[in-house]
Amino acid sequence: MTVTDFRPRSVPNEVARVTSTAAELLEVLWGRASTAPASASQLRVLLILEHNSGINLRTLADFLASTPPSTSRLCDRLQAAGFVEREVSPVDRREVRLHLSGRGQAFITDLRARREQAVQAVLEQMPNAERAALLRGLEAFCVAAEAQIHDGSADSDSRTA
C-alpha cells in the first residue's frame, strides 16, 4: 500500500499513521537535500539553542531528555565544528551558557533552505486545493504540538542523546 492509497479520515489513529508516513518521507527528502556535517542529535542541539540562546548545559540536557555528560560531549563536537559557543555565566562562574555561533546559524539557515526546496518540489505536484488543505492541517498540527511540548506533556523516562 502506498501513501496515495490512504484515505485520511478524522479518526486519530488513521491520521497518525498517515502523518508518520509523511514524516518518514520528509526524512528521506531532507536526507537527499542535506550535506549536513551534523548528526540528528547535534542538529537538535542547534535548533534548541537557536530558540533558547544562553541556556546552561543542564537545561539543554533536560530539553534533550539526555544526561549532562552526553549533552556536554555533543556540545564539545559542535563547538569544535564552530557551531556552538560557550561562555561563563556572569552570575555564577561555575555555570556555562551555550549559544549558537554565527556559523551555526548560517548552517541552520542553509539547511532549512535546502529542505524547503525539496518539499516545494513535491508540493508543486499537488493540486492547489490539496495544498491549501495541507497548509490548514499543518498549521493546526503545529499549534497543538507546540502546546504539548511547552506544557511538558511529552515526558520521557529515557535519558540518552
3D architecture notes:
The chain is mainly α and 161 residues long. Helices cover 63% and strands 7% of the residues. The chain contains six helices and three strands; from the N terminus they run ααβααββαα. A three-stranded antiparallel beta sheet has the order 1-3-2. The two termini are 34 Å apart. The C terminus is likely disordered.
Short description:
This protein has 161 residues and is mainly alpha-helical.
Question: How far from one another are the termini?
Answer: 34 Å
What's the SSE pattern?
HHEHHEEHH
Main sheet? 3 strands, antiparallel
Q: Tally of extended strands?
A: 3
Shape: globular
Strand line-up across the major sheet: 1-3-2
What are the low-pLDDT stretches, counting only 5+ consecutive residues below 50?
Answer: 156-161
Helicity range: 55-70%
Class based on secondary structure composition and strand pairing: mainly alpha
Descriptors:
161 residues; mainly alpha; three-stranded antiparallel β-sheet; 63% helix; globular; disordered C terminus
Annotate the secondary structure layout:
Elements: H1 12-33, H2 40-51, E1 55-56, H3 57-64, H4 68-80, E2 84-88, E3 96-100, H5 102-123, H6 128-151
Antiparallel strand pairs: 1-3, 2-3
Helix pairs in contact: 1-5, 2-4, 3-4
